[in-house]
Amino acid sequence: MTSREWAGLVAIGRIVKPQGRHGEVAVELLSDRPDRFPKLSRAFLPAPAGRAREVAVERSWPHKGRFVVKLAGVDSIDAAETLRGQELRIGEEELAPLPADTYYHHQLIGLRAVDARRGEVGTVQSLMETGAGAVVLVLHGSAGETLVPLAASFVAEVDLAAGVLKLTLPDEVEAGPQAARC
Predict the structure, then answer these.
(1) pTM recorded for the entire structure
(2) Are 16 and 28 spatial neighbours (Cβ–Cβ below 8 Å)?
(3) Cα(114)–Cα(2) distance, rounded to whole angstroms?
């Protein structure tokens, strides 16, 4: 089994509780690809000093909107309980390629957001799902928090190589604490 940097991995699920008597865990999906779980043969759990440790996935099956996962070496309820709240992650190289102009959420985190007229607005701190497929970028900058819909009318360009998200904000949107709230 290998060890990797935790920060370089992509979260696909969060262990919410033990599930069963033999060390199985219930996993909340953090991925829009539930089909990956039945085929999953390995994942990573956090380890000390910002590292991640690889764990073999013995089996996985859907159950009540989550997945039940059996990890090698986790063979009791007590052992499963120690994993509560931990994320399961995979390497970015295991992600499916996306169509043009489509991005994984983790690729947008940390990008500098720059408006064509106002200059730098902030940095993408997180993405918020608002329902009905709508996603909002949560930007933090010198003026505070700004919420921007992830839509073509607001996001002109995503340049991952340069680490920049180019925005076209309408005049009605104010950067900072006065930004529209959901």
Answers:
(1) 0.71
(2) yes
(3) 39
